[in-house]
Amino acid sequence: MKIALAQINPTVGDFSGNLKKILFFLKKAERGGADLCMFPEMAIPGYPARDLLFDGGFIDENLRTLERLAKQVGRTAAIVGFAARTGSRTGKGLFNAGALLHKGKVRQVFQKMLLPTYDVFDEFRYFDPAERVSLATIGRTTIGLSICEDIWNSSDFWEQRFYAADPVEMLAKKGAEMLVTISASPFVIGRRTLRHCVLKSIASRYGIPVFYVNQVGGNDQLIFDGCSIALDARGDVVAQGKAFEEDLVFAESHVAGPALPWIEEPVEENVYRALVLGVRDYAGKCGFKAAVIGLSGGIDSAVTACIAVEALGRKNVIGISMPSMYSSKASVTDARELAGSLGIRFAVIPITPLYRAYIQTLRPVFRRLRQDETEENIQARIRGTILMALSNKFGYLVLSTGNKSEVAVGYCTLYGDMTGGLSALSDVPKTLVYGLAHYINQHAEIIPQNCITKAPSAELKPGQSDQDSLPPYDVLDAVLTRYVEKREKPEEIIASGYDRKLVWDIVHSVERNEYKRNQAPPGLKVTTKAFGLGRRIPLAQKYY
Amino acid sequence: MKIALAQINPTVGDFSGNLKKILFFLKKAERGGADLCMFPEMAIPGYPARDLLFDGGFIDENLRTLERLAKQVGRTAAIVGFAARTGSRTGKGLFNAGALLHKGKVRQVFQKMLLPTYDVFDEFRYFDPAERVSLATIGRTTIGLSICEDIWNSSDFWEQRFYAADPVEMLAKKGAEMLVTISASPFVIGRRTLRHCVLKSIASRYGIPVFYVNQVGGNDQLIFDGCSIALDARGDVVAQGKAFEEDLVFAESHVAGPALPWIEEPVEENVYRALVLGVRDYAGKCGFKAAVIGLSGGIDSAVTACIAVEALGRKNVIGISMPSMYSSKASVTDARELAGSLGIRFAVIPITPLYRAYIQTLRPVFRRLRQDETEENIQARIRGTILMALSNKFGYLVLSTGNKSEVAVGYCTLYGDMTGGLSALSDVPKTLVYGLAHYINQHAEIIPQNCITKAPSAELKPGQSDQDSLPPYDVLDAVLTRYVEKREKPEEIIASGYDRKLVWDIVHSVERNEYKRNQAPPGLKVTTKAFGLGRRIPLAQKYY
Q1: Rounded Cα–Cα distance for residues B264 and B244 (Å)
Q2: For B235, which of A16, A155, B42, B181 is 20 to 30 Å away at the CA?
């Protein structure tokens, strides 16, 4: 049997657009001689549709779209994800489901059994779990049907498992001769390799080929990377979808190898491409053509601008330098040089007169109180207001430029540099921002060397440097990775060799600045634990 | 058996504070001759602790606190909520649990079976469900043990049920002679009456007395109202805890009546008291003493100021009038009059010079483009920046003043009037804001009559009135209630007699402004569906 993996980029709620896309790929698969074409989990409504799933009209339209699609399925069968009503009077009333379509009809419907409800996932909010696994017969082959999380619970792979059931084992016991998985699995650094290991272990454990199709595209915080994969019964890779692009690949179900080499690209390349896709899709799916970025002359805004140019085209990116009296000369010249090398529009809007006007306005209430962070924040908020004014006047998306390290410890101003519709780097630690800059500059100096080499500074008071307020970034990032991503206890981090005061200072900074992140723009997720959707901390709490 | 219901106000993660509070009430119950004193669900860690539950140290300290408490329990037994490790290698690893403590020891542990995972609740994210119900014997009485949601799934009460199991029925079948429920059930308009109905139906269906203790206090968006309740075996109320306050009430387990009359206070009174508690606790638990409010002379900021004064005391509330050239004279005089009648500090900070400075600064990029909402937003953002400057300089909490109607349709400026640490009215529809104003003024004119009677206006351009951009508030609120709270489909709303274009305009405004609410301050929840935690809509979507 010839199987096509169609990794498409649906938009949540764009039923006619998603249908068109599915049909386009289906016809291509048919022309390629496929017996079966697989589409991602929730390909019809898009994933994650979140609380739109509570909207009866939304579910109706998703069902109508499935029927419309079925009518156009001919000799190439299709498997496609959608939201199915359970018809039960107990439970949530919906299944995360897949349908097998063939010759004008919905032949079979199957349901997801394992519902991820952790990190960014909330599936128990919406769905009831399948009570049993489903097999289908296509030609003479018995096929095990599964959806995403269903394959992530093998007892020989995981120490601690979220679920008691292992649907893959159940399918194998019931005689599945091959496994198909439709998925919407978001990008995370290293996830592609982990996915490969999981799939390989299934193929070799049960001696069956495995066909895995994944969604591609950005949806708010999440970036789906595609990287669909087909493995033969020995666990060797026989076909792979591209990363971060729509793609259609073919594989024969019971022909072994030749095995393709397994490689995961370097972290910097993956993260860069993920962020480009995330920015492009957020803008595109929200209806923005162009983006505006405050260029400080520093590395964060430089990397953000490069990503935006790759995502939207240089004509659709506008860089604004907003110097104050505390800005170094280089802040404007470096920003201008960057804009020149990227070929983007650039303007300088000095904020000193506005800053003076605020100080003047506030003098009657501030009297002679000494300067503190208040005045620094005013500068950042003037810049935020200016960027939003450009957004309002010209319809630009404001891209905020803060990195994960500073967002983590609150070294950023709410309504100031945190202003924006999307944050490209808020899950990228500062040390990796440097890595991205080097990746961007690998063939030519796009980012001026000075942006990379100068000491990072917020330039909000005379002679300021990040390192006056923060530990060195390599230390900060190492502690943050342990504390935020790996959830190590502070005492464990200290025991592994970090200074006690340093660790506790970082932990307290992280937890006491949750209120800022609670009002931050959505930020693209690239690590196992991003702030936002996947990390939900109460604001009023006295533990930290 | 004499039972005490101790409705306490714990703080998330404040283990020593919560323990102290529990002991204080336990001693009081002991002095009152109670055999058993009941504390709320999760009384030890506070509810909801959210992702702090993933913190191993947090769980450890919660367990140590339970042990510490057990040692001090003497002849009055205690039932108290905490987070228990399951010890299993599958699942989430935690139970939402309760412990029965007596004479220095943890005698029994029981678990919550039904885990709410809808609206503001995410319990499947953290907990595994109990596999069986638990009974305890105290003296000679067999007691059915339950936690919050466990009692909300009776098949004769609900048409559509979230869960197949009914723990109360299971307990009754196993011979429970009375039911105890420890709970953390947030306030919602009408919820108290619904709770009473549910409890009464249980008592009368099974002919057993029911003892229900509820948490009290504000935790971020959620306000827990207390209102603990004891019912005799006929379903008559025999004891009730106060609303919105800590309280300790006693009831005999098998003595019938005299039945107390059941009354729920008027909506305005309940909402007012809920918001006062929400503001007081958010400020108190986050460490703010004082709050600053932008007083526009309108009704929203007036009502917010009254709530703040009741919550924090008049010495701890600061009102700021920030007139522009578009502000009416009355905007300052009404604000000043309000500040006078409340006895709060008041300052006028005119923003016209700042506004002119922005226009001047932006002239080179805006050229001769005509004025639009950009210039209106600049005014709002200047005000936001000034309030944040006062917050930064003096440590005030900024209370944002937008109501639910305007937040729903996006008639508000991100980083402008949406600035703040907490939003008191963001779940209060405009029509109910008027109701609150009348409630506040029932005995004396605290809010100047002019704030209430004048036509609402944002005063961001000459001669502006809300009704130029929005439908009349009674119509808007009626449609919003149907669409947001009751989740009626737009076509259903139209079919019930509303204008088609009006309904679709409102629906589109709601959905297209999700990006603003996504960065809004937390807002206190008082309706069945508040924006924020309980309503999770994708930003990049093409359905609406």
Answers
A1: 13
A2: B42
- Find the residue in A nearest to B10 (Cα): A541
Q: Do B90 and A164 touch (CB under 8 A)?
A: yes
Q: pLDDT per residue over B386-425, tens digit each?
A: 999 999 999 999 999 999 999 999 999 999 999 999 999 9
Distance CA A104, CA A101 (A): 7
Pairing of strands B216-219, B317-321: unpaired
Residue in chain B closest to A380 (alpha carbons) equals: B385
CB spacing of A49 vs B544 below 8 angstroms: no
Global pTM reads: 0.97
* pLDDT at site A467: 85
User: Are A70 and A26 contacting, i.e. CB atoms less than 8 angstroms apart?
Assistant: no
Residue A41 annotated in active site: yes
Q: What's the CA gap between A95 and B288, in Å, rounded?
A: 45
Question: What is the rounded CA–CA span in Å between residue B255 and residue B521?
Answer: 48
Ranges of H-type helices in A186-298: 191-206, 267-286
Is the CB of residue B1 less than 8 Å from the CB of residue B34? no
| Residue owning tokens 């947090």 | B58
Here the tokens at position B419 are 């600035």
Residue with tokens 């489901």: A97
CB B318 within 8 A of CB B293: yes
Q: Compute CA distances A291 → A420, B39, B98, whole Å.
A: 10, 53, 52
Contacts of B209 (CB under 8 A, 6+ apart): B178, B179, B203, B230, B231, B232, B233, B238, B253, B254
Phi, psi of B5 (to 5 degrees): -100, 115
Cα dist. A16→A46, A66, A473 in Å? 12, 11, 47
Q: How many helical (H) and strand (E) elements, i.e. helices and strands, does chain A have?
A: 18, 19
| Share in percent of chain A as helix, strand, coil (round to 5) | 40, 20, 40
DSSP B532: B
Helix (H) or strand (E) holding A345: strand A345-348
What pLDDT score does B261 carry? 79
- pLDDT digit string (tens) for B140-149? 999 999 999 9
B305 within 8 A of B342, measured Cβ to Cβ: yes
Pick from A381, A392, A518: CB nearest B374: A392
